[in-house]
C-alpha cells in the first residue's frame, strides 16, 4: 500500500512539473471557477432557491473535466515538441472559458443586485453585450439563433 502511495505521489509530482509552464493559466481557471461557483450560490441564496448538492457536484465535475482537457492538450503538445503551439491552444481555451463563465457570472450578479442601482445597469449592459443579444437584432443571424434554441446542446 505504501508503494502505491509513492508511485501516485511521484506521478502527480511529475505531471505537475510538466504543467509548470501553464501554472498561471491553471490558477486563473481556479479563480474563474471559484467566482462562478460563489456567484451561483449567492444567486440561489438571494433568490430563496434551495441549495442543490447535485448541481454543485455537476459544477465540480465539469470543472475537473475542463482542467483535464487543458492539461491534456498542453501535455500532448509538450510530447510532440510543440510547446509554444500547445500554450497558445491552452490560452485560447482559457479565453473561451472566461467568455462563457464570465457571462454566467454576470447573469448571476444581475440576479443579486437591486434593479434600481447603477451597478445593475452596468452589469445588465455587460451581460447584454457578452450574451450576444446585440447580434439577435441582425436579420441574417436571426435564423441561427432560432435554430440554436432548438438544439439540445445549447446552454
Secondary structure blueprint with pairings:
Blueprint: H1 2-18, H2 23-46, H3 53-80, H4 83-112, H5 118-130, H6 139-149
Helix pairs in contact: 2-3, 2-4, 3-4, 4-5
Give short descriptive properties of this protein.
79% helix; 155 residues; mainly alpha; 2 domains
Describe the structure.
By secondary structure, the chain is mostly helical. It has two domains: 2-102, no CATH class; 113-155, no CATH class. The protein is built from six helices and no strands. The longest helix has 30 residues, at 83-112. The chain is globular, with a radius of gyration of 20 Å. The termini are far apart.
Strand content: under 5%
Shape descriptor: globular
Count the beta strands: 0
Number of DSSP helices? 6
Fraction of residues in H or I helices? over 70%
- Main sheet characteristics: none
Quickly give the structural class. mainly alpha
Average of pLDDT: 87
The Rg value, from CA coordinates, equals: 20 Å
State the end-to-end CA separation: 44 Å
Tally of discrete structural domains: 2
User: How do the SSEs run, as a string of H and E?
Assistant: HHHHHH
- As residue ranges, the low-confidence spans are none
Q: Short summary of the structure?
A:
With 155 residues, this protein is mainly α. The chain is built from 6 helices and no strands.
